[in-house]
Amino acid sequence: MTRAPIVAAIDGSDSARQAVLWAAQEATRRGIGLTIVHVAPDLAAALAQGRSWLDETSAAARRAAPTVTTSAEMMSGSVVETLTAVSTWADTVVLGTRGIGGFTGLLAGSVAIGVSTRARCPVVVVRAPAPASGPIVVGVDGGSAEEATEWAFTEAALRDAPLIAVHTWTEGALSRGWDTVPYVVDFQALNDSMRGMLSDRVAPWREKFPSVRLDLVTALDNPARALVDQSRHAQLVVVGTRRHRPLAGALLGSTSHALLHHAACPVVVVHADS
């Protein structure tokens, strides 16, 4: 049975070219194919330009990953809707962060958020240049982290990279557990408790991937801020999110949204039902 390929979307920008190179290297690690796509209006001039970009980036991908089976495909229609449809048969969809000329509406901003929100597979948004070293970082919470945690462990094993699992909490979340907030809170004891809970949550993956070097980080902090801070020395940040109903994913979680805008390294968004 043929395995699903990684799909990299291009728009002619330097950011998209960097995303293709990242996708080619990832396809090499995973032993799967790479499909490069360009989505354009059904106009002759746009189609001709798109084919030129596809030829250029396909050649660069083959040079970067000569063992990977690479193909290219021109598509027409709405970028978000088309790439959402692509995500139903892709292993992973990879995007750049900035469109041509730095405009944020092409393969960043609305498109990256739209595709990350609706996709049926993991979505990687690549900031150029992507770091070649550093740990993998994964945000672990109680609602949407299982698939993201598994993805992060798998990636850390493929890259032989250390993994940092991060869990945060806020004073507001703590106060909801008490009728009356205690005058003094033993934050060290609370942090130890949270660390134990985090250890329990990642235990199945630690057992499945015993070679992965794992560090647990717990903190009284905003999750988005904590993960953005971790991204400054990471090669990849992985975050889970849930699909919202009944809008079929019309919203993206606040942590994922913040990371797409502010992380210093590529961000992977993994839906709970990916």
TrEMBL record:
**What positions does the domain UspA occupy?**
5-127, 135-271
Note the InterPro entries from the entry. Rossmann-like_a/b/a_fold, Universal_stress_UspA, UspA
Q: Which Pfam family name is an example for this entry?
A: Usp
Q: Which family does it belong to?
A: Belongs to the universal stress protein A family.
Tell me the protein's name.
Answer: Nucleotide-binding universal stress UspA family protein
Which species is listed as the source?
Kutzneria buriramensis
